[in-house]
Batch of 3 targets.
Target 1
Amino acid sequence: MTKLGKPLTSQEIRRQRQQEAFTGREDHLDLFRRQLALAGDDPQRRFVLSIYGQGGVGKTTLLRQFRRVAGSERALIALTDHNERSVPETMARLAAELAESGGPSATLAFSPFTERHATYLKRRGELEADPDAPRGLAGFVGHAAVRLGAKALRNTVPGSDLALDLIEGPLAEQAGLWAEFVSRKLGNRDEVRLVLEPAAVLTPLFVNGLNELAAAQRVVLLFDTYENT
């Protein structure tokens, strides 16, 4: 009830609950502000801050507050959440947000990653839509827990030296079929590796862009529900 005795609206109730959930987090905000103010080589500087707690205690709300504080300090900010289900998706969202807020210099820093990621999406889309693609691969490519590596010659895919670091269980056969299909359809060795090992290929490009950006200004990356990726 309000002070006038009127029932609270659903929005007022939601705001009240969010505020109650956020109670006690002021120390976290102060810590975040202090960390932003420290030089990178300061012994007290922490580069990773982990927020934990049961669902509904205000972790997402605190991240939003972190974002507000970082923005007021003119830091570049990017946030990823449960909508990103893979490492390439997560890096792509972070790079896009940093490029949007950081202007031409940020766009240029991430251009090698952005271009390579676009090629990955294009080639993967073409392969998944190919009528010759192995049956039963719907949803497998983006979500299966596979590791495709360019290591020893064990289980070598015909036509390339990419090897399959084999997976346990029924995914092994599907992974092998997919790897062979990709190698057969794509003549470009670099693109074969890009499709089979997107995280391994794209991560160095993303890190290079991030380092270039962070050399000139502060960058804050926020991960909400990061365990999904």
Note: Residues 86-217 form one domain.
Target 2
Amino acid sequence: MNAKENEKISNALSLLKFLIPAEEDIKEIRYKEARSFFQEFKIEKNMKSICYSNKGN
């Protein structure tokens, strides 16, 4: 195994460290839908609402 392959494997394992707790959160229903998360975020940060919908609104 050369250095480049070793780095790819190391990076993949590092990403897995983040995915495992995230999968547990999903199984335990500890998440919010993106839309509601950003609505709350905007309210807390006093941000103006910006709609990026592709529905023509």
Note: The mean pLDDT is 87.
Target 3
Amino acid sequence: MPQMKPLMWMIQYLFLIIMMMFYMMINYFNNSNKIYFKTKINLKKIILWKW
């Protein structure tokens, strides 16, 4: 069962990305463009930091 761990990690990472996208969409539809823009920059930093 060595392949289970990377699979679980990938599922968790995908879930995190989906949650982030959902959060960004909420901000976008609330017309809080400044918050949306800030979130986009922060997400890019977080993703770059993770890799």
Note: Helices lie at 4-29, 33-50.
